[in-house]
Amino acid sequence: LYTMTDPGTEAMQIVGALSLIILVFAGLVIYSIYYVSVITDVQEIGKLKALGASKQQIKRLFLIEGMRISVFAIPPGLLIGYVLPVLLLPRVMHMAIENSMTATPVKAIHMFSLPLMLLVAAAVFLLVILSLCKPVKMAMKISPIEAIRYQESSGFRSTRKGYKNIN
Questions:
Q1: In this structure, is the dihedral angle defined by the CA atoms of residues 121, 123, 129 and 134, taken in order, positive or negative?
Q2: H-type alpha helices, 41-113
Q3: Which one has a higher pLDDT value, 157 or 7?
Q4: What is the largest CA-CA distance in the chain?
Q5: Mean pLDDT throughout 21-50?
Q6: What distance in Å separates the CA atoms of residue 110 and residue 92, rounded to the nearest whole number?
Q7: Taking Cα atoms as reference points, which of 151, 149, 142 lies closest to residue 61?
Q8: Rounded distance between C-alpha atoms, residue 130 and residue 163, angstroms
Q9: DSSP conformational letter for 91
């Protein structure tokens, strides 16, 4: 609300800093998800390489997966981020006016900004691409031989017990 009603430079700096912090943490979440994905799919990536997949094809595989998820997730996220304040802000303002003696009614605030939404969508796409860089590099470095030797640690794998005490 404060930023929509003639914000000052300090308010804009605070909002910008908070936005950058949110982007950094979102990037870390995306990075960690794909990092774990590469680690758990070492054998599958190795099989693809053994079948003749190039490094660029592995890279394209991960980037297309990230972009496909982004295409389906960004529009609903933007819609929810726009609709919730439109629905909840009038109620919050009405409650604030009822409970405060000094509050004055605020005119209708138009919160929709197409350039801002396009900027947010572009920032999220860029964030996804940047977050995929290291996991993609890791996936491109996996060799088929390394993938065949690699075995995930599983808790229920049994160890050989037999014939230790033969005399």
A1: negative
A2: 42-50, 55-99
A3: 7
A4: 94
A5: 90
A6: 16
A7: 142
A8: 54
A9: H
